[in-house]
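Its record is retained below.
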Amino acid sequence: MSDPLNRVDGRSTETTAAESFWVRRTALRRLGKVALFLISLFLFILAITLMKEGARDVGPLVRDRFRVTNAANSLGFGWLFAYVVMSGSPVAAAALAFFDAGIIDTLGAFAMITGSRLGASFIVLFIGFIYVLRGRDRSTSLSMGLLSLIVTGTTYLAGLVVGVLLLDRGWLNTVQLESGAVLNSATELIFDPVAALLLSIVPDWSLFLVGLGIIIISFNLFDKCLPQMSLKESHVGRMSRLVYRPWVMLVLGALVTFISMSVSVSLSILVPLSQRGFVRRENVIPYIMGANITTFIDTLLAAVLLNNPLAFTVVLVEMVSITVVSIFILTFIYHRYHDLMLNAVDWIANNNRNLAVFMLTILIVPLILLIL
């Protein structure tokens, strides 16, 4: 007969070996995510460098063919551009590259970045459509996307007015990052030779398109290096009381977007969360506001890399203006604003004709702005 103690020791050894395997696997997975983050950061900086070099040659096409000559054109162009690439951050980076090249002015850059965020908010609605096609509840799936889009639209359009005032008065022009020049010198040493090599291979105008493609890849890689979200009832139970506090949700939305550096990621998770009943649309309006404040972190980094103080000011004004509008809404008119947004979502989502009119409107409006 075998010794029971040995059997126990054997099981203990097997358990220890299994635990060691999972510890090593977890460590390797974390190292892989760190490596992926570094690669995505490298590609992001490379993309900004290439877009900066190629923007001057693409400028005549943007200015003459698309007739982007004023703030309204820039707003519509950024809006439609974000539809095409299904992301706002690359378009915002492109706006800064155009501004640095002198293709658009300060107000045009500000308007184009605003348009990029309006177009990016459509992604959440698109994900809602996918959930409907998969047989999920129509009202729940579309409502979260519509709410994200409408809240983003109203706050950004109000922020556009505040931002124009701030830019006109120049109140934030003196706020700059002191370490920007050091960072720019380091990146020039590493990435300018790569840009010069590509210039010797491809036409100058194509550098902007290459950079745009690379920056889209960099954001996709960054999304992959984020930790997978695990939805557990116990966690939801502990946070259930927090989601009813608007200021807490504002901070939560800002933090999630700051960490992920992607408003598409932070807002898109609302669709599956609402489908599982973990959040209700009544509670997410402040979350959306917070996400829209810190979504400019990557654009702020792009401005620093361009080493253009006015570009940094444009992005900073975007952040401050959205913050001012969000705080004003939460402080003074939140309940009326909350009811107005939910009523608008119900009006659109519960009737096919209303939904069709809304979808047609968000396509036609940027087209009209582009031709003004």
In short: Confidence is low (pLDDT under 50) at residues 229-240. The radius of gyration is 23 Å.
